[in-house]
């Protein structure tokens, strides 16, 4: 009896180009061609960059950068306040385009999603042709551009979408995957942050080819459980399915620091930067929560978390920072060197869709992102 050969999946990763900034430049012609930052503060007094236009990126400005740094890099940069209602409306139209081809869609944010087009609704067959049609519809119907990566796995498709930005289209077929992964710099691998990349480079691991020399057990010993992922992914093995429906229980952001944080003042400053990123993600998903959690990892790799809940909802960045300050003030950190800080919100109100009817729904329900 012949063995069953698994169907090879066709995955597209779509990532809009400088989404918030591009929407602003589309809607306000006077902003086109100029260095533009969505978020932050024109006086550089606080906040961080949510998105930078490509004109601003030429100066080294990037998302999550403090606005005061952006202002130093480009004194003529234009700051605009985010219009999340507009971005969400554009995102809904974007997903209407996606649904013409497949209903197996995994949204990562307002402007980014995986699509499984193994069986596409229109019977086109070739994933690269579907990606080309989606990009054309985005350009004609939304007056925006998107970059697409096409492959047989989520990991490779996501990396591919970033290779030719903006307005890129990159296909990496099965026969090219292993060679592609071998040539990939380690900092491009999922789960490899600055600290891990530095550790790898100190060991002489600069590319996927270098990483591939290590056995699975050795990678697990060196990097923990994620070492198993590194072992498989460098060989092009990624069987994660595109997941159309996921219940979000918490949203968080974190950062690892090259130099340990030793004072609460320094920690608070970093928490303010993280808070702005967290609020942006919460707004992207249309969520507000009641519980805030801070995560501290120390130089000896011990880890603690501290949480506090409120009766109502954490409504905005100011309220979030105020609560984070309270948690920080009540956490014993004397003589502690903090290597990683994280901040997250949970215990959500679940937003209703129009067909749910009036009244707040606080019970468990499948999250609808769009």
Helix share bin: 25-40%
Order of helices and strands: EHEEHHEHEEHEHEHHHHHEHEEHE
Spatial separation of the terminal alpha carbons:
46 Å
Characterize the biggest β-sheet. Answer: 5 strands, mixed
In the sheet with the most strands, the strands line up as 5-6-1-7-8
CATH level-four homologous superfamily name of the largest domain: Reverse transcriptase/Diguanylate cyclase domain
Quickly give the CATH architecture of the largest domain.
2-Layer Sandwich
The dominant shape is globular
Q: Counting H and I runs of at least 4 residues, what is the number of helices?
A: 13
Taking pLDDT < 50 over at least 5 consecutive residues as the criterion, the unreliable ranges are: 1-5, 351-370
Keywords: Cytoplasm, DNA damage, DNA repair, DNA replication, DNA-binding, DNA-directed DNA polymerase, Magnesium, Metal-binding, Mutator protein, Nucleotidyltransferase, Transferase
Cofactor: Mg(2+)
Catalytic activity: DNA(n) + a 2'-deoxyribonucleoside 5'-triphosphate = DNA(n+1) + diphosphate
Subunit structure: Monomer.
């Amino acid at each position: 009896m012949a063995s069953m050969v698994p169907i090879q999946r066709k995955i597209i990763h779509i990532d809009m180009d400088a989404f918030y900034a591009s929407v602003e430049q589309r809607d306000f012609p006077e902003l086109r061609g100029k260095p533009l930052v969505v978020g932050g503060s024109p006086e550089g007094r606080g906040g961080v960059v949510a998105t930078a236009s490509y004109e601003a990126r030429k100066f080294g400005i990037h998302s999550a950068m403090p606005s005061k740094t952006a202002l130093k890099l480009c004194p003529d940069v234009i700051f605009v306040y985010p219009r999340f209602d507009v971005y969400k409306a554009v995102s809904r139209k974007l997903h209407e385009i996606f649904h013409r081809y497949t209903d197996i869609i995994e949204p990562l944010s307002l402007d980014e999603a995986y699509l499984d087009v193994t069986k596409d609704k229109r019977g086109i067959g070739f994933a690269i042709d579907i990606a080309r049609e989606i990009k054309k519809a985005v350009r004609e119907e939304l007056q925006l551009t998107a970059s697409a990566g096409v492959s047989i796995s989520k990991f490779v498709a996501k990396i591919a979408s970033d290779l030719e930005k903006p307005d890129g289209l990159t296909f990496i077929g099965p026969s090219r995957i292993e060679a592609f992964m071998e040539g990939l710099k380690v900092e491009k691998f999922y789960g490899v942050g600055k600290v891990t990349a530095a550790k790898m480079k100190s060991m002489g691991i600069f590319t996927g080819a270098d990483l591939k020399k290590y056995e699975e057990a050795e990678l697990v010993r060196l990097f923990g459980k994620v070492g198993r992922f590194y072992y498989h992914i460098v060989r092009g093995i990624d069987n994660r399915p595109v997941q159309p429906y996921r219940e979000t229980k918490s949203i968080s952001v974190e950062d690892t620091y090259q130099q340990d944080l030793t004072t609460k003042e320094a920690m608070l400053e970093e928490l303010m930067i993280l808070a702005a990123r967290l609020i942006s993600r919460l707004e992207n998903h249309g969520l507000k929560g009641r519980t805030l959690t801070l995560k501290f990892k120390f130089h000896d790799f011990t880890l603690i978390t501290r949480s506090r809940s409120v009766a109502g909802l954490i409504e905005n960045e100011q309220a979030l920072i105020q609560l984070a300050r309270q948690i920080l003030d009540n956490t014993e950190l004397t003589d502690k060197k903090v290597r990683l800080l994280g901040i997250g919100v949970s215990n959500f109100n679940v937003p209703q869709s129009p067909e749910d009817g009036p009244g707040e729904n606080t019970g468990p329900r499948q999250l609808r992102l769009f």
